[in-house]
Design a protein that fits this description.
Layout (H helix, E strand, L loop, with lengths): L9 H10 L4 E5 L5 H12 L5 E6 L5 E7 L2 E4 H6 L5 H10 L11
Parallel strand pairs: 1-2
Antiparallel strand pairs: 2-3, 3-4
Length: 106
């Protein structure tokens, strides 16, 4: 029996395209939990928002976090709710691309 494909959310795809323009940092979590490793890395390197952190938990698993002015968020949440983050709106406007539907002024 053929498996049905999971429907891809347009809003999430749009958010993923927006996050492609954000600086990315790849780190290893080591002995810390992934979110703790991300927070320590942000503190040590003085990273300014917005930024995407890819934290390698083990050889198979990588957790993705988004560093915003409001704090540290899971990247999947940010993809789905990118319109809630003003720094992403400014990033799209600065890159000169056509703003996605959710970010266009009304």
């Amino acid at each position: 029996m053929a498996r049905r494909r999971k429907r891809k959310s347009r809003r999430r795809q749009e958010g993923r395209r927006i996050l492609e323009h954000v600086p990315q940092y790849s780190i290893e979590s080591g002995q810390d939990k992934p979110v703790t490793a991300a927070r320590k890395f942000i503190q040590a390197e003085g990273i300014v928002p917005p930024a995407l952190l890819l934290v390698k938990r083990n050889e198979h698993t990588t957790d993705r976090y988004f560093w915003a002015e409001k704090g540290l968020f899971g990247a999947q949440y940010v993809e789905e709710n990118h319109f809630l983050f003003p720094s992403l709106r400014q990033l799209i406007e600065a890159s000169g691309e056509k703003a996605p539907m959710a970010l266009q002024p009304v």
